[in-house]
Amino acid sequence: xxxxxxxxxxxALLALPAAxxxxxxxxxxxxxxxxxxxxxxxxxRCMVCQNQSIDDSDxxxxxxxRLLVRERIAAGDSNSQVLDFLVARYGEFxxxxxxxxxxxxxxxxxxxxxxxxxxxxLWLQIRRRSRSGADVPAPPLTPDEEARLAAxxxxxxxxx
Length: 160
Fold this sequence. Notes:
61% of the residues lie in helices and 0% in strands. It has six helices and no strands. The protein has helices at 2-15, 31-43, 60-74, 79-90, 105-135, 143-154. Helix 2 packs across helix 3. The chain starts with a helix and ends in a 6-residue tail after the last helix. The mean pLDDT is 82.
């Protein structure tokens, strides 16, 4: 019974969403501003973890960035102004989802181009195989192969 309860508790804990790294002392008193700060924090990359948002990261630099976001919001900046400020300071890499600009167009188009190219290569390969298989007749059997085939056809099937 205890094992079953322990298993249920462990599964329940695993099913919970990941805890956010935002500390109680970082939370803004205005719920609307705090909501904006959390939304922006989910869009920004932790420079230490690199594949995690600053909202989820426990790294000290992520905490500094969260505080900086809240500071800019408290100063009256809009969401785009906060993002522009952070991009100017840390570069485009700070954004988890890069903007569609001249410098990032290859990044945005690379996956669809690779998918299209792979589909085209697959289509051409299938087309080439179907044409070559229909046009080329099979070579005739040698007398030894014909005798072996006849012997195989006369054999009784084996039961398994």
